[in-house]
Design a protein that fits this description.
The structure is a homohexamer.
Chain A lengths: L7 H10 L2 E6 L13 H16 L29 H18 L3 E6 L5 H16 L12 E6 L4 H10 L10 H10 L23 H7 L14 H21 L1
Parallel strand pairs in A: 1-2, 2-3
Helix pairs in contact in A: 2-6, 2-8, 3-4, 5-8, 6-8
């Protein structure tokens, strides 16, 4: 089920069977010369929607938390960020809303490495509401908060290493661009040239430093390799892994 | 252009022509027995995307700000809210990010009546950054911040009054449900019965009061009238009005 | 009763009969060449005090929340604003304090159009404390939060339209200046000339833009029409309407 | 001049002569069996207004910051408090607004002992905006922030010790009740009996503890001694001292 | 006991006997030409540790809250400050953590005059959690929050006045420098000359003003008098006073 | 140099040579039956101080940021946590203070795995001050923000794997307990028995869950192996690695 395309009575019924929800979470930030600004939000959304389509009863997918931590990309037009403190407050509100309805298991399905720290910090902030209770255990339920990056599933990692033995990279990776091309083939940028072919690697600081060190936005990648067919394989592998993981959740 | 499906060099080019951006903003909240929880986020997104498809060079559409002010709907499963203070902080961050790139005109295209107050409050918070400058004018640019509800365009208002002379309503309206059915026809809930046929009207307070006064979630509406064809008309009318408004912006 | 001129045992007694309180809320901002900076705080205060004087047992009036949302007026000396996030926090604290004592009905009696959005946002923030409760209903009481602008009473609207068929305006209105002249006749500015006689109208943005577009501060008004006698009529009409509204509250 | 009864051009003119402003600041809290809830806000307001009346060109008085730190009084109906963090944010906004216009000297004229800590904390928060500047001195002006309690003027202290050799007290003092009776003689509570005649003294903690230790709200005082004539003397002495202090400011 | 050198089972056992804890709180700020930047944090830490060593069963000492309110010292390299709002939030978190374990009595043992206001403000913020409870008394325990400056013990005051009849001063005092020299004799700066011998006195504002008015950082003191032997006497006197005070707490 | 034992003129001189500072950062939380509550703050402090002692001119060590993210340990008496949002605000204030003096390179030397996420989030929050600048580069300097865990140095990792081939663990590790025993040999808890000898491993959630799953607080470790001699080796290896790393910083 997709939460945003469901009615409230459908969610009420769903809650009788499962207190788990999958929340795609990404970022809105430059992805080099041929990657979409929305790549990191689109990837987990595409994969989760694919999983839902193949097994609608086995998964409930929330709307995508589509803007995350991207301050280091602000040197490139179109990037949008939340400050970590704002992101923590937002995730807290999303969670408290869903807890009101009875949800207890939150699977944040992440598409952006730069989100990891703040997601984990938000988990502590959320848990602190119960941990700070003077009696040691208030009447809030215990919550299971999990973050999973779509590229960390074993099967997906194996696949992208096989597809892109060189130039997979760390930002604007060959695999994430493929995933978005698969979902939005009409928006492919197929004729973009990049130099150097494989982007440099290095440390990430603030927006000024990032733009100076990584002039076209990529880190370590050659996304000219990306294509729809690879994207299909990656989405199928990841969606299958997601469904398996949720079944165990 | 859709920001999330564009590359950063494309946005850089776009900024040379226009400093304006359209941001669909909605809510994730119950919409009665046959409306999607995502209705208020989907409507402005559907309309903006329709406009963009018909005139891609004339409009830049940001990703949807998809969770808004819905505390009064928390009595119904699936509803998600931000506290107004969180929403203000988020809108501030979105704006400051885009201002960094040179954007100066922000057209928040709204799908939820309950968002209006907080959006306007956020505008004051954003403007206060410049208004508080000790010298009277800092080196921030003056910003144009506009909020427009899609149902307020003259042509749209005329249309929905004609389509639904009775039972259009105030929440889970016949028109908004039609708009989402047009975009997601496979998810239509066509056989839902409602009683009373036209929902009651009244005041809105907190979640407990709302659920007691409006037991199935609707206010004043009969959305059993909603259908794909009406949705098409509404979307086309609204998209046309949006493009005209943006041309003048 | 006036809360600030009452003792705590008097308020304790009052609470046995009524859990309602009226809170005048205004702003501290320029009101053109002949209007007081305090106009928007003074108007609801004057009217509420008048009502209280005529029927002290029927109404409990809190001290005035006298600084509100006025960032757009900061181009004019003397204007003072809260950021909306600060105003929300303050209204939350006022409310939580009064809830502690048993108050459940809050009638925010407003004197400033620019406050409306933030007051409504604050209501959501206040309600969210109860709506976010994991059990669906905590042991907080349900609160009735109402905002009423003094100029929106039917009888008042009829009166000011009759008194000022032209040049009533939107900011530094003829009627609000009259109300303050009635209460503070010694402070009248009777010899101020204005040009144009009726001020321009337009959109409101930040402080720099406002000062540029509305050079003497007024919007659409000719407050040279204002006088003590009109003020008396307006105050009496509004006070009567307030008492009737409170009786139904 | 009273800011709230002045026009913006009058304030603009005033700023050419003086960059100083007096802001009465108080609290809304129980003051025992015969003291007004507004006592702490009323006292500095009454004194400042008296000073202004006698020498309108020598002083500019802002509207009263009328709700302060009163959490320990919340056990008594009618008391209203800000959390210190909210009060700091509010004082910051008031100051930043006035700095925008060119004010540089802020004389917070205080009526509540419980405000002292938070006022001083707010001063640090305000100064930190300039002190945190990476260049060591930003383009903000240096601000003079002063807090003065009206009862600390030498002449006032001498007077109240002479008027009330016993039972002046620390909360709901004989002198502050007299000041308010002088200004609002019709609201005097002249027949209230108190037992013990002089209230106990002790430490102040939270609201539950305060109510238990000081059952009628007073600390160390016998305000049955209060009267209009004493109030007149106190107001005149304090107003004179205020004007002298401002002349040196 | 020292909390940071204890195990959790030891603290569990301790809580069966006493719900009190001593928290040294200081600041990290310049202390003139021969005083350590850490002076204000070190003094209460040194004294508390000395007390603990002499009577380990009679006192539980927390780790030092070592950065406080020092914005006015930011003109001098090495000074570190929290904004008061941050300090309040931190003290709230420390307290809520310890309340979770059963602590109810908090003795903040202070080494910095500039902390006093914010510590007191934090106490109000902490108490407000219980005072805001709608039922008048929630299930939080009543807390005893105390702030004591180490130099305010009668015996200590007598001693430093005797040791330093002139030039004790207000900042970078002769006594506090002696206390740190006693604990860290190897770090003494014994050959520093100062001019004037006794530093000037005056008002404290922001960092720019402070540096201009007090060029070497001292206020009213001559810390060239400081020495290890005086430090020993001061530490012993203060530690003894602390233990007595805690026994009564 | 140790910042807290230096004078401000010494720091001023130091800044002429280096703009780098090392800040030990830890946590105050249970460390099993024989580990100190302060372990995570003590370890980086001990190591940094050891490094400083051996090469005082090569390193500047700040006071320890001694309370971090420990909400999951609140089930065990003595643990103290900051909420991540508070920790971010504190780190921001520390940084802004030091930037005021000219520091540009911040080496946060970490002793607690649970801090990693929030430290990284704080870095984004700090950088956002410059990244949000409307002109793309404000007059703040670019900052180098680095986090290093003391146990991640290659030489240290090799050493603890050799010292503790089994039962090193993840929390209350054999190596960290040894480090603190080396520094505080008198506080060793040498006769504590643990069962099972090697603690269980598992996921970390909130405080209630943690205490249920890890009843004595340890995760995966057998710290009965810890001893002073191992601690000496670890401290020496880590201090040497720290100095080398700082030389390259």
């Amino acid at each position: 089920m997709l939460l945003h395309l469901s009615t409230w009575p459908e969610i009420a019924t769903r809650l009788e069977q499962s207190k788990a929800i999958v929340i795609p979470i990404g970022s809105m930030e430059q992805h080099g010369p041929n990657g979409f600004i929305g790549t990191d939000a689109l990837c987990p959304e595409i994969i989760a929607n694919h999983a839902e389509k193949s097994a609608p009863d086995d998964i409930l997918v929330a709307p995508t938390f589509n803007v995350g931590c991207a301050q280091h990309h602000l040197g490139f037009p179109g990037s949008i960020t939340l400050r970590p403190s704002t992101m923590i407050a937002s995730m807290l509100d999303w969670t408290n809303s869903l807890v009101r309805h009875g949800f207890e298991k939150f699977y944040w399905f992440n598409g952006h490495g730069g989100n990891i720290a703040t997601i984990e910090a938000a988990f502590s902030e959320i848990h602190a509401q119960r941990s700070f209770d003077p009696r040691g255990e208030d009447n809030r339920p215990g919550l299971t908060l999990r973050r999973v990056n779509w590229w960390d599933y074993k099967s997906v990692e194996t696949l992208y290493k096989q597809l892109y033995p060189t130039g997979h990279g760390m930002h604007a990776t060959a695999s994430e661009v493929s995933v978005t091309y698969y979902a939005y083939p009409d928006h492919q940028k197929s004729d973009v040239e990049m130099s150097p072919k494989i982007a440099p690697v290095g440390r990430i600081g603030d927006a000024v430093q990032y733009r100076a060190d990584f002039p076209d936005g990529r880190i370590g990648s050659d996304p000219t390799q990306s294509n729809v067919e690879d994207g299909r394989k990656l989405v199928e592998a990841a969606a299958e892994a997601l469904l398996k993981d949720i079944a165990r959740f």
